[in-house]
Design goal:
Length: about 375
């Protein structure tokens, strides 16, 4: 702390820039805009007691402008407005008269972090800096990653969240991509040792959204591939009014060791937004695999091959009558093992066959319709 005291003293004495950087300490900086503590940089901000004070900024949605106002604590030569967009270096935006106490920035373009500071020029070598103030302008346009909604059943890669931005299609606790891979948004994406990418450095309260296209309303089996070195993790999936509830898991044996967590979730049909909410700190999410439940797969059953044609009598005697609402072109009678025994051509929806030569037993009647379809009916004699 001794070093910081010295820096602060120098600033106050000499009116230096109000930021001090030192990587030797281990205390955090409170980021007011994000309401989080940043432990990656040690920074002290301090306004000069004679510098611009009570600095406020306000975003006007109607005019898409940001208004600035402040109080001057002494007389200056001039006032300079500096701006930083998305945490880039501050650059000069405007030079104002010495007595100015307000400014309107009409050059807002696009969403992102807009930070400002007021610099009071005292003389050639001295300027007093206000506290910086930041406003985040929300994005308004969403699109699926690669403009392709993920098909369900199918795979949702964690790193393929929707295009849009912070606050609209995701929320991330810090402005950098801490993993540095795959995309340049705030979301922390890292390359996996085994190949592919996962969303990493997860913090409680972060969320990601994905445009999905669900084939049909059903309960799906969800397999989440997750990794956690020590604490395990937890997340909740939400689609429309459906929620998975908080899915919790214990440590998987390493940051690169994926475990598959399986659970079920009902999904509404059609184009939907899948939201993944992080309920714990410190885990990696690779992907979510949505599979149809086996019971949803249609299987052949006696009920599904209910004959459309009426066959009588059955058991049959010497003559068989078949009536259908379709035109029958040909009728075959086969043994139960599939050996052809009789065949007769027709061009009628009601037919009559001589079955007097069939011995008592079980047979198959195959009806070929004029529309190209076939029907198989079990026949007894
Ligand atoms: Ca981040
Ligand atoms: Ca992945």
């Amino acid at each position: 702390m001794k070093h910081y005291y010295q820096y602060v003293k120098n600033i106050r004495t000499n009116g230096f820039a109000n930021a001090v950087w030192d990587d030797g300490g281990d205390f955090g900086m409170y980021k007011r805009a994000q309401r989080t503590w940043d432990y990656t940089k040690d920074v002290i901000l301090l306004s000069h007691e004679s510098g611009p004070d009570a600095f406020n900024i306000n975003y006007d949605e109607n005019s898409s402008s940001i208004g600035l106002n402040w109080v001057n604590k002494s007389s200056y030569n001039s006032i300079i407005i500096e701006r930083s967009i998305n945490n880039a270096a501050f650059t000069q935006l405007a030079t104002l008269d010495a007595g100015a106490t307000s400014y309107t920035d009409n050059s807002i373009s696009g969403f992102g972090y807009y930070a400002y500071r007021v610099v009071a020029n005292v003389n050639q070598s001295t300027s007093y800096y206000s506290y910086p103030q930041q406003h985040y302008i929300m994005p308004t346009e969403r699109s699926a990653y690669n403009n392709t909604p993920a098909a369900i059943p199918g795979v949702v890669e964690a790193e393929a969240f929707d295009e849009g931005g912070e606050g609209l299609t995701f929320h991330d606790a810090d402005t950098e991509n801490l993993g540095g891979a795959f995309r340049t948004t705030e979301v922390d994406i890292a390359q996996m040792d085994a190949g592919g990418y996962h969303v990493a450095y997860v913090n409680y309260g972060e969320w990601l959204e994905y445009t999905i296209n669900v084939a049909k309303e059903a309960t799906y089996v969800v397999k989440a591939l997750v990794a956690s070195d020590d604490m395990g993790g937890a997340f909740t999936l939400k689609v429309g009014n459906e929620t998975s509830g908080s899915i919790q898991f214990s440590e998987t044996g390493g940051w690169q060791v994926n475990n598959t967590i399986t659970f079920e979730m009902k999904l509404p049909a059609g184009k939907q937004i899948l939201r993944v909410e992080m309920d714990a700190n410190g885990f990696n999410l690779d992907k979510l695999i949505f599979e149809s439940k086996e019971s949803d797969t249609p299987t052949a059953s006696p009920a599904s091959v209910k004959p459309k044609a009426s066959i009588y009598p059955n058991p049959v005697g010497d003559r068989l009558t078949v009536a259908s609402d379709k035109v029958i072109e040909c009728a075959h009678i086969l043994s139960i093992n599939g050996v052809p025994l009789m065949a007769q051509e027709f061009n009628a929806s009601s037919i009559n066959m001589n079955t007097s030569e069939l011995t008592p037993g079980c047979y198959m009647l195959v009806l070929e319709y004029k529309d190209g379809t076939k029907e198989v009916v079990k026949l007894m004699k």
